[in-house]
Structure formats: C-alpha cells, structure tokens
Automatic annotation (TrEMBL):
Keyword Aminoacyl-tRNA synthetase (UniProt): no
Full protein name: D-alanyl-D-alanine carboxypeptidase dacC
Domain Peptidase S11 D-alanyl-D-alanine carboxypeptidase A N-terminal: 31-225
InterPro entries referenced in this protein's UniProt entry, alphabetically: Beta-lactam/transpept-like (IPR012338), Peptidase_S11 (IPR018044), Peptidase_S11_N (IPR001967)
Species in which this protein is naturally found: Serratia fonticola
C-alpha cells in the first residue's frame, strides 16, 4: 500500500479526474455507495492509497486533455525542483513566445499577464500555472526548465511513459488546441496520484485559492462544487465542454 506523507485527519484520498481531487473518509466495504451518475464522457474515482478504481465511466476513452495538461507540466516542474535543477527564487526572463499580445494562440485564454523582458521568479510563474492556469506562465517556465517548449513537451511525454500512461500524448505545454493531443480519465488519475506521491511540495500549490501578481488578483480555477474542500481541485477551465467529469 502506498503511504501518503501528507498530514491529514482524513484517511482516504480519491481522484475524480477531470475536475477535482477529493479527500474522503475511509468507509467499510458494506457502506460503499452505488456508482455515481456522472454527466460526462469519461470519469474515474480512485483511492489514492491503494490505487483501486472505485468508480469509472469510459475510463480509457481518448479525449483532449485541455487544461489538465498542466498537471503534467506541474509534475515536470516539481521534479526539476526536487532534483535541484531550478529553484523557487530563480529569475526567469520572459520571452516573446509567452507574450499574449504577440502570440495569437494565447489570445482569449487564461493568462498570468506577463510581458517580454519581465523577470519573474520561478515560484510566481509556478503559481500562475497551478492557481490561474496561465498559459503564458506555462510557456515561460517551460522555456526556462527545458530551453524550449518542444523540449519540455518531450520531458512531459517521457515522464508519461515512465508513469505507465498508456493512452496519453502531449503536444503542448499548456493544453490549448492541438490535433493529436490526447489522454484518458484513467491516465489522468494515475498522473494525479504520481504528483501527490512524488512531488508533494508541488502538489501543495494546487490547494492554494489565490495569488496576486502585478497587483492582479488571480483566483484558483477549481470547480465551485469543491471550493469547500481544503485538500484539492484540478482545473475547471474548458473541461466540461471537452467531456471530462
């Protein structure tokens, strides 16, 4: 059984992939509720400690991961910090590719609102990715970690293989539209489990509700249904129309 090194009064962690990461108390098997009715193309509910799937629907159907892509981006960043390759106080010089005004791909999407030439600490860009789902922050930090977006995507896919994600392929660092990019609810559950287990300091950011950058208050984009849960939340942005739970 996996050990959960996070301090929590609750016994079991479940992953409802696509929308939320939820802590639920341990219950006896006889008390287990019926499988939920979920209005989604695919969903998975996993017990963190055992990895047991408690409920699922179309768990291996390939879908566009959209902003759930940033769970893998977060994992790669967490591993880079864990290995000492980057530090929270390292300053990142923002390039033109991370500038929404100069990059049509980013227009109208979730942003941290950084500009070319800005020097931003790794810790702030990381919050921009995790809390705000900032696509510009994703590009800036990917360039810093790996030298380019393409190289960072390579790291994402390499980690995916090492984690046993059999139906996942990333093409972008942020999850914006890209033909041929896909994942499944099952793979996202495994990835979420790995993020909590392997890079707990990185996972802790996913529980923060907001942060402020350049006097702009950024709100965590977790679903309203789990705002009361102190332990969690993955990305709300654009998920429902893509079919995730």
């Amino acid at each position: 059984m996996m050990k959960n090194n996070r301090s929590t009064p609750l016994g079991k962690l479940a992953l409802s992939v696509g929308v939320m990461l939820l802590v639920v108390p341990t219950v006896q098997a006889a008390e287990a509720p019926a499988a939920p009715q979920v209005d989604a193309k695919a969903y998975v509910l996993m017990d963190y400690d055992s990895g047991k799937i408690l409920a699922e629907g179309n768990a291996d159907t390939r879908l566009d991961p959209a902003s759930l892509t940033k769970i893998m981006s977060s994992y790669v960043i967490g591993q880079a910090m864990k290995a000492g390759k980057i530090k929270p106080d390292d300053l990142v010089t923002v390039g033109k590719d991370a500038w929404a005004t100069g990059n049509p791909v980013l227009r109208g999407s979730s942003l941290m609102f950084i500009k070319p030439g800005d020097q931003v600490p790794v810790s702030e860009l990381n919050k921009g990715i995790v809390i705000q789902s900032g696509n510009d922050a994703s590009i800036a930090l990917a360039d810093f970690v790996a030298g380019s977006q393409d190289s960072f995507v390579g790291l994402m896919n390499n980690y995916g293989k090492s984690l046993g994600l059999q139906n996942t392929h990333f093409l972008t660092v942020h999850g914006l539209d890209a033909e041929g990019q896909y994942s499944t609810a099952r793979d996202m559950a495994l990835l979420s489990q790995a993020l909590i287990r392997d890079v707990p300091d990185e996972y802790a950011l996913h529980k923060e509700k907001e942060f402020t950058f350049n006097k702009i208050r950024q709100i965590n984009r977790k679903p309203p249904a789990v705002e009361h849960q102190p332990e969690c939340g993955w990305y709300q942005n654009r998920l429902h129309r893509r079919g995730w739970a």
